[in-house]
Each structure stands twice: as C-alpha cells, then as structure tokens.
Specification:
The protein is an alpha+beta fold. It has one domain. 40% of the residues lie in helices and 21% in strands. It is built from three helices and four strands. The protein has a four-stranded antiparallel β-sheet with strand order 1-2-3-4, with no helix packed on it. The longest helix has 13 residues. It starts with 14 loop residues before the first strand and ends with a helix.
Length: 80
C-alpha cells in the first residue's frame, strides 16, 4: 500500500526553501534542516507509483496500491 505524508516542501526544486519558519535544504528529494537532520517527507504519491511500478510490479498494481488498498483500509477502520 502506498500513502504520502509529504510536507509543504514536496515537489520543490533543489535549493533552500522557507518552510514552517525554518530554512530547509532540498536536495535529491530530501528535506534537511540546518543541522542536517531530515525535516520530513517530500515523496509525492505520483512519484511513489512510478518507483513501485518500475520494480516490476507494473503500473496497474502500483496504482491499486495507491488508491484501492488505502480505501479498503479506511473502510475497515470506519466499520462498526
């Protein structure tokens, strides 16, 4: 199952960006704070689908992992 908890810096180009009042360095999809620690996820769901599909799973199954599978989990969680 694919999900995304991407932060506001997701999708930004490499460089220094102000996020949540803090300067973050975005490089190769990773957001790091001034001390070099990871500041949050920048993985957007469309990119996750591409990466999973490229592993040999295929496009249909990767899209299923990002849509149908999470929906089923949420439906089960909401069931009485």
């Amino acid at each position: 199952m694919l999900i995304s908890d991407a932060m506001p810096a997701a999708g930004l180009a490499d460089g220094v960006h102000e996020v949540w009042g803090e300067s973050l360095v975005i490089r190769d999809g990773a957001a790091r704070n001034a001390s070099g620690a990871l500041a949050g996820s920048t993985a957007l769901l469309d990119r996750q689908i591409e990466i999973l599909a490229a592993t040999g799973v295929g496009d249909t199954r990767a899209r299923h992992a990002a849509s149908v599978a999470p929906r089923r989990v949420l439906e089960r969680a909401q069931a009485p």
